[in-house]
Amino acid sequence: MSAAPQTRTRIKFCGFTRGEDIDLAVALGVDALGFVMWPKSARSVNIEQLAALSARVPAFVTRVGLFVDQPAELIEQCLPYLDMLQFHGNETPDDCQRFLLPWMKALRMRDEIDLTHEAERYHHAQALLLDAYRPGTPGGTGETFDWSRIPANLAKPVILAGGLSADNIADAVRQVAPYAVDVSGGIEASHGCKDADKMASFVRHVALADTH
Asked: Would you tell me how many other CB atoms lie within 10 Å of the CB of residue 161?
């Protein structure tokens, strides 16, 4: 029996640093919330902050920890507060697979990247997150990439990231038909501080795109 076609694009909001932003995202029906554990990010939190923020997340909302080539010991300390891991560095499949949580691999869309090959390489991943490429920046660039570069029928679910906002998300959903979308800067007033109107508008535009 074939799987039923997807009728709703899942939404992940990333880069939370404040409890009130988490509460609003949950109220808006966001599927996953991201916490940046990479200390060089302007949106980073430490383990103590992660523990407090994750405690506000109710059942059936996925807590995702974002890491960039960080020590296994640190990741293991974060595991009690997370439901899924997101790897944004040069982690090998074995690096990602060693923990006891589901994980996704972020890929930056370099000119030479072969997504079909990467989907096979990271075949244990729950999804591939596709982000814009900027040298020296592992994510959160606020830039889009050419969505037509994503091959149809990729072997892994696609989470589309990179420069998304309420202004372009409907076009992105219609063109790419991703499993999910991931946004951080596009719903912010400033780094790590979400904007309530932008959050609500983003969710509304995804829903509108899904209905069409």
From this structure: 29
> Which whole number is the average pLDDT over 57-73?
98
* Residue 9 in tokens: 């694009």
pLDDT at 153: 87
Distance CA 137, CA 104 (A): 18
Torsion, Cα of 68, 157, 168, 31 (10° steps): -80
Residue 193 annotated to the active site: no
Residue 1's pLDDT is what?
47
> Torsions phi, psi of 11, nearest 5?
-125, 130
Catalytic residue among 14, 21, 96, 182: 14
Q: What is the pTM for the complete model shown?
A: 0.93
Q: Is 131 a catalytic residue?
A: yes
Beta strand extents in the chain (DSSP E only): 10-14, 32-36, 62-67, 84-87, 103-108, 127-131, 158-160, 180-183, 188-190, 193-194
Please identify which of the residues 21, 78, 96, 131 carries the catalytic annotation. Answer: 131
